Amino acid sequence: MRTEPKLTRLDRVFARLDREPERPAHIDVPKMSRHRIVLFAATLAFYGAIVWAVIITSWLVRLDWQVMFFRPYQQWSEIHWFVDYYVVLGQRGPTAVMVAAWLGWRSWRQHTLRPLLALGVSLLLLNLTVGAAKYGMGRLGPHYATVIGSNEMWRGGDIFPSGHTANAVVTWGILAYMASTPRARRWLSAVSAVTSLGVGMATVYLGTHWLSDVLLGWAAGLLILLALPWFEPLIARSEARIFDLRDRLRDRRSRTAPDATPVSAPHVVVTPLPADRDDVAAGSPRAPVYLAPGPHTARSERTPITPTGSRRPPHAERHPRGSASSARPLTGG
Q1: Tell me, what's the pLDDT at 24?
Q2: Looking at residue 318, what is its pLDDT?
Q3: 283 Rama sector, left if φ>0, alpha if ψ -120 to 50, beta otherwise
């Protein structure tokens, strides 16, 4: 009795991915619902509250200094090696390459540029918003702090908000945003939240960021993910223009590319004058002979052509071959 092989979970995942040979007819595009707008407004209010708490040097700044003096990297030095590797999950270059590779494969499988375009838009928003906030507020990090208890604002720094944290929220959260099913979206949202939370805590452990930097980085990354549905029409128009440009280039190439080898005009060769002088005198037309185009051949390679008609003048006593010749009179010896 033949039994079917039992598929593992990984086999079922790849079998599910193989069922997408063509572009899906309906792609689930998140929309700016009322729930999402409420979350966006709440996150924006949290973002403003963190900035205001740091500017006025509130209890949050005092907490930043207490954590810095605690020096977690000395209290738990046995995990320092692990944190050094884990914090790479928040660096812009490695994470962008990994996520772009996965989304690029999805774009190829589904015949759509939306995953890559969504990633590009989110990273562009991240660079603009977080970069402007960093250089606008100019806060110094814990290793470069000058006055104990100060908020270290507008002193030429670039660590507020935390770029590692915001980048982790966006790059790993875009996977949940691009998920094809609600269940996958929930699981990927949880994984990306835990990953970005760990990256933020890793920067605090290493002493490269204040705790308030991490809180603002979480809020900054979440704002970008929540605002992405507003940019979906722009993504759709960009995709349509790219595909139109591709089709025009293909049409132009097909028009300019030669369909076949160029064919030269046939050569016209006039046959020589007939040998019969009566035909010449009668002025019979000479029919041209069309030869097929092609490379010239040597004389030895050409097929011999037997001329039509005889070139010899008629002779009264000449008999054609194969006919019974008349008996000649025998002369006596």
Answers
A1: 53
A2: 52
A3: left
Q: Could you please report the per-residue DSSP string of 218-256?
A: HHHHHHHHHHGGGGHHHHHHHHHHHHHHHHHHHHHHHHH
pLDDT digit string, tens, across residues 82-121: 999 999 999 888 999 999 999 999 888 888 899 999 999 9
Q: Could you tell me which residues come within 8 angstroms of residue 43 by beta carbon, excluding any fewer than 6 positions away?
A: 219, 222, 223, 226
Residue entry with tokens 């970008």: 224
On the question of a cis peptide bond just before residue 307, with omega within 30 degrees of 0, the verdict is no
Report the distance separating Cα 225 and Cα 236, nearest Å. Answer: 17
- CA atoms within 13 A of residue 109's CA, in its CB half-sphere: 13
Q: How far apart are CA 225 and CA 240, in angstroms?
A: 23
Amino acid at 93: G
Determine the number of helices (DSSP H) and then strands (DSSP E) in the chain: 12, 2
pLDDT of 143 strictly over 60: yes
**String of DSSP letters for 131-167:** HHHHHHH----GGG--STT----SSS---SS-HHHHH
Q: Are the C-beta atoms of 107 and 116 separated by less than 8 Å?
A: yes
